Automatic annotation (TrEMBL):
GO molecular function: oxidoreductase activity
Annotated family: Belongs to the short-chain dehydrogenases/reductases (SDR) family.
Pfam family, one: adh_short
Protein name: SDR family oxidoreductase
Keywords, comma-separated and alphabetical: Oxidoreductase
Source taxon at top rank: Bacteria
Annotated GO CC locations: membrane
Length: 264
């Protein structure tokens, strides 16, 4: 059991599947208290029951559509009312619809911005005064390597993750002397249901299958880093090395990786 996590109340968005569900499981396994948010109440209820049966930990869940800002604001208020102090926030919810900008539907663009950026800003902004008052806390933002290297057919998704990285890096500097940790988690492709919506054809998922990360392993790495001062978690590490080369020589990198970049 991780003593840093034991007894800590940790809010997780997008907790009903993929990385989010494994975050809740590993937090409970290490003695923490998951507070889970997602649209699927049926899955959240099942998860809460399984977590209690397996670990003897009572977890909590809330139904929320993060694209509905007014409703989400009210639910955050309710969570704070129900639980008093929170110890950490993991902004995990995210979505994508891959495609050329010229062929994209505005509702898909708007939803990506709402889920990936606006709801993350909303949650952080609303909980930050609470963390500042208690002079402790950890904010973890699940970003993407796409926030460092943009590729064709992911212009909007990459833009949202660039926004998350910019926000995270600035916020870290604002609160680092006030007892609050801020970490970005920059991921390559992860084997989740994310791609069923992002690319229903399955072409991209098949193209990157051999380099896909396992959500269970990603979640364990994140939970093990909770309440430690860590600027970034980059998975896989070799992909982050590529982003550093890209920042130095973007034209060269785009030409060299054109085939890989165009696999969506």
């Amino acid at each position: 059991m991780n003593e840093r996590v034991k007894g800590k109340k940790i809010l997780i968005t997008g907790a009903s599947s993929g990385i989010g569900q494994y975050l809740a499981i590993h937090i409970a396994r290490q003695g923490g208290i998951p507070i889970m948010v997602a649209r699927s109440t049926a899955r959240l209820e099942i998860m809460a029951d399984k977590i209690y049966d397996t670990f003897g930990v009572k977890s909590y869940w809330y139904e929320a559509d993060l694209t509905n800002d007014a409703n989400w604001k009210d639910i955050i208020d309710q969570i704070c009312y129900d639980h008093g102090s929170l110890d950490a926030l993991i902004n995990n919810a995210g979505m994508a619809v891959f495609g050329l900008v010229s062929e994209s539907k505005w509702q898909d663009i708007d939803r990506m911005i709402s889920v990936n950026v606006k709801s993350l800003f909303r949650t952080t902004h609303q909980l930050l005064p609470h963390f500042l008052q208690q002079r402790r806390g950890h904010i973890v933002n699940i970003a993407s390597q796409a926030g460092k290297i943009a590729t064709p057919k992911s212009a909007v998704y990459a833009a949202t993750k660039h926004a998350v990285l910019g926000f995270t890096n600035a916020l870290r500097m604002e609160v680092e002397e006030k007892g609050i940790f801020v970490t970005s988690v920059n991921l390559g492709p992860v084997r989740t249901n994310f791609f069923k919506q992002a690319d229903p054809t399955g072409n991209y998922e098949r193209a990157v299958d051999r380099i896909m990360l396992e959500p269970n392993e990603v979640a364990l790495t994140v939970v093990n880093a909770l309440f430690t001062k860590q600027r970034e978690i980059n998975l896989p590490s070799w992909m982050n090395s590529g982003s550093k080369v890209y920042s130095i020589a973007p034209v060269l990198m785009e030409k060299a990786m054109q085939g890989q970049f165009s696999k969506k």
